[in-house]
Queue: 4 jobs
Job 1
Amino acid sequence: MASVYKRKYTKAVDGRKIKKQSKCWHIKYRDAEGIERRVKAFKDKAASQQFAAKLEKEAELARAGVVDRYKKHRKKPLIEHLADFKQSLLDKGCTIDHAGLTHNRVKAILNGCKFVLLSDVQPSRVQRYLAESKKAGLSTKSCNYYLTAIKSFFNWMVADQRIGENPLSHLKRQNAQKDIRRERRALSLDEINALLAATLQGSKHHNLTSKQRYMLYTLALNTGFRASELASLTWSSLNLSESEPSVTVLAGYTKNDKQAILPLRRDVANLFRQWFTESGFLLSDKVFPRFNKSKGAAMLCKDLEAAGIPYQDESSRYADFHSLRHTFISHVGKSGATVKETQTLARHSTSALTLDVYSHVNLYDERRAIENLPQLHRDTNKTAERNRTVVKRTGTDNEPVNTGQSDIKQLTPKSTPFLTPTAISGYDRSSVVGNQQDDLQETDGINNHLEDGELDNERHHLATVGTGAEEMGRGGIEPPTHGFSVRCSTD
């Protein structure tokens, strides 16, 4: 029930507090949503009571659905609502770039469809506008971004009680996979090494020295960070401790508005620690102070050209700056990480996005996967021979087990034929095991007793297998890496 009253207040006059009341009457009532409202009325009490009755009646009719409770919002131009929407995005913590981009996309649709008031909004006109934009050259993926922006705008109006429902709620996004205008590819390990080597030897361009670009690409390939995220990093964002190094991107700079903390390879952390020490940076300094995120593709294109790597391959796939993120995610998957681990490191909301868009495999990867399948059709004679070998090795053939003279010498080259010649080149393979065949025959009791300690007779040979220290001096077991290829050594 609405009530009419005069507002009482205290006013200081000549140092004394005097109680007073307003000249006009005020009305207290509950609106259609049940919210208590207080409205200033008139000096005349009878007129104020009539106004209170009118307000109460309108609220009752609105609750019954007879009167439009959003009448005042429908009279307000959409462009003014849009300005309030942009401010709400900023108030809830969105970046200026994100709020501005969303605002501009909604504004483009409103202007293109000539929507002025809420009554002008028609879903079919929005569909027509997006279809015409697509014919004019806009990709399906971009059209989906525009649709998402304007639907978010009307969802906000519903949440802010400016309209009752979203007029575009039934419009659906189109399948962007059918219209990929710019397909990216992942760089191979050879391309990565060539790119980093050429970059380090190059000259300054795009306001970055060769060392700065080298470090930028190295960090991008080891974290998968986007260009905007890399540009936001300060030295305080990097935890370069020897035990658990990591890198952090603040929530205001990530795509999902969540803080991102990714582990950092120790060799990469050492590389950045050395750079920090040598250059005398401050923790508050930007790691890449003059990196222009909008020029990342052009910068990388120039370094790719210097390395002899095509910016666009024969399949029309691009190797732009965002392809470094594709490269990171693809190689994480190839390293043996689970789908969940890959999704987490990629910071994707779904595993489908990680697998369908960012994971790239080639014929070599497919061949490796096929070769790892179990052998279903086997030669009978070879299978029987293999079974006899296993039975003999496990001691289940009712024969004495020869613990000293095992099949290690034969297993090593057969199991890893591509590693054995390099790993133990320059040595007699029989001596690497630690005991030669002749020594085994001359030693008493070695075949039946392990506690005699004869397996340790030539420790320097055993150490060679474990560390490869002596062989490294002759050329090394593997070429030097740039902090990334180690992750994907299985390739």
Note: The chain is about 50% helix and 10% strand.
Job 2
Amino acid sequence: MAGITTRSLRNETEQVSELICDIYDAALEPPKWIEALKAAAGFVGGPAASVFSKNVNQRSGTIYFQHGLDPNYVRLYFDKYVKIDPSTSGHLCADVGDIVSTETFMPYHEFLETRFYKEWARPQRLVDAATVILQKAPTVVGMFVVFRHQRDGLVDREMRRRMRLLFPHVRRSVLIGRLLDVRQSETAAFADALDGLSAAIFLVDAKGHILHKNAAARTLASAGKVLSATDCRVFAHDATANGLLRDAFLAAGDGDDAIGTKGVSLPLTTRDGDDYLAHVLPLTSGTRRRAGSSYSAVAALFVSRVRQYTPSPPEVIARRYKLTPMELRVLLAIVEVGGVPDVAEALGVSAETVKTHLGRVYGKTGVNRQAELVKLVMRFTGPIAS
């Protein structure tokens, strides 16, 4: 029995290693996301996976890469069902790295009552999904999701464990891919492509020695506000951040698996208080070796300026009054739509479900009329876009 366990663990380690390599390759070659998502869905335990974002104010979304879903249903989701998807409030209330499933944001028996389930999920025999939050802005949430087929059952502990194994690598690849947005032809020189990017990019060896800088990196280093280059090495002014960078470079030299969460999204602050983020991408495996081989680089360090994250008004309301995702969803619908019958129709749930959650909202906020709830929300946000 112990031998089987050891063999299983070895097989999983090899599978994860190959999958992480594919995920990082996709940062430089976006078409590779399709195969990476196919492998990720199979590893995590579902038939389909997607990388997408939602605008919680506009009730809209954008899909970046997906595998396994019927394209007609994907189109239907963004044309119609994203507006009534009950998971949106759960994603809004979650933090980066949180794994959200149906029972995170509403009782499962209530989910089965929704129009979203009956008209979109059930026809595809989808019963659940595990979604990990990759990035948050005041109104937009970026996510990686693996769907669950009825033959798989609901999201369970093992599925969550496997999602956690992949999360830091998917997040790093997505964030770096957004910075790169590489559209150069296959024959274009990698260094020339980097020089056209606004993000600062340093190619480094395991000790942090700089082997190449793009134009933005040369400008950033010469300014010396957040990073400096001394004796051909890159270092951060903050000692803690600098230590984390050193660890990430060393780990990158040992391959994709070793880097783990190191350097996924490292905050850097200038002496003037400006905020930057640094991401470290290994260059020693997969097709990424071509990018670094000319310089003997083990990693690419990406640095870009960011705005400080400010929670959206609905997120602030939920935290202020300790509302569950479903309670927040009902509260916002009351403000946007009106009375209980209209809210029930808009959300695709029963009037009794709305009344139950509305009663809890009244108890937590200390008001007892819908008009007072409207005033409460307006104090935080003003008119809410429909």
Note: The CA atoms of residues 218 and 230 lie 12 Å apart.
Job 3
Amino acid sequence: MSTTFDPRSSSHSIPRGNHPGRTAADAARAWREHLPKALRQRIVSRGLIAFGIYFTLFHACFVGSFLPPTASWRFLCIVLQPLLIGGLFVVGHDAAHHSLVPQGWLNGLLGRLALLPAWHPYTSWCYSHNTLHHGGTNLRGRHPDFVPLTKAEYDALPLWRRAVERVYRSWWGVASSYVFDFFLGYLIFPRGKRSPPDRVAFRLDRMLVLAYLAMQALGGMWLSQFTPNPMMNPGLHVFTVVMIPWASWIWFMGVMSFIQHTHPTMAWYDNRQEWSYYHVQLKSTTHVVLPWPIESLLNNITDHAAHHLDPTIPLYHLPESQRLLEEDCPEHAVVVHWTPAQYLETCRICKLYDFERHCWTDFAGRPTSEMGLPDRCVDAAKGSR
């Protein structure tokens, strides 16, 4: 029988306040140890409702991009699709962690279906995200996306590849790094160590994504026959409905993935001996506060530090878990109130990384952040949030 978590009943269970001298790893362990068990409870009805709402609304909007009598309604359906892909993707992300519902087989089924509109094969996503990203957050050689180069590595690149790196580290080109390096390189065409161990399941999941894309194209061509007063030819209409929402979503996904582990106060590592799981999950993972109601529409994925410290927390318990984390670890928790100016500043500062001095640099190798980032307290960097 499911129970509903009441924050009032557990507000005293986690020690509160600033604790000078307490390490980030100790703070993270204490938070996880005292986290109420109810916040890890997976509830079948809530998982199914979250999946059902987003899956139904996305496909209703897909159909609505063709059939309404006015172009304005069809346009609205196209505009809504990127947000729905994002919300459904987070449901699939939870299922991949087996934290959406209690049943493992049901998580696998819902995860595969939820990730289809994002065109992310379930098996390669689980390996690259759960194993590599969570298992080696901000550790070069392990972390799969947005790993910063050093000045020496950048200088050794041919001119064309330096130009690519400059695009990848620009405010407008961050998403291209997600698409070409991560989506294509890890999820669709992985090679060597990037490949998931279960190659058969991966190939089947990739075929499932391809079949879904074909269904979108063929379904769109069929629906376009019934579009009243069409504004474009059927082929262009289908291309617009299928590609524009996905491209818009993946650009946003790239930006979000970048800022969740890249910040002027956050360290990266190339030495496993320096790297500590609990330390990194707390101090190199942000809680990005987005304008209302985007956070809620994205199923709380921006409550990211709590998720990284304990991936078993379902998406519907993340806001309360993140609140408790920030109350317990204010000296270490990184909260970024997103604004265009803040995002531009992060992109300006975080070009290359000096792993010896532990600071960000520009492409000329000049430090752009303070040095010794692993040892810095968040409170000392409030001005750069």
Note: The chain has one domain: 19-328.
Job 4
Amino acid sequence: MRRFAEDTSVPVGRSRAEIDRLLQDWGCGQLQWSDDYKSGRFRLRFLWEHNGKGYLARFDVELPGRKDLEKHAIDGRTGNVSENKLQALMDARGKAEHRTLLLWLKACLNAVESGIVTAEMIFLPFLEGKDGQTVGEIAIPKLADLAGGSASRLLGEGK
């Protein structure tokens, strides 16, 4: 199956500008991008104002590594990895991921605006506490506990 935006030529900067504009239009007053080139990931953080409180949301996106991309850089004539193809794929990393993040944010915000779901439901896993952990990072390792009890067990409440 073809991945969304896998062949996009839209530069990362343009996608980030669109995400910035979307979040500003939605009422986010603070936004931060950071790149970890060595580890091949980027982070988006934004402050969401809701009912008089500020909530910090964080999205960490890991980019495909060299090994992940080698299978897409095979030279059809030799069957070996083409260094030129591989380098082009490495240079394009982040383009599809930024387009996908933009699409996801647009879809989520439209779903909120149409009343399909609340913003709290959408962004809950991505809300970051003062300790730097997101709700998702805390709850996901405990998810198996949900099958054996109440939802409060995910947050360490009750037994």
Note: The helical segments are 12-25, 66-70, 83-91, 95-113, 119-123, 135-139, 143-146.
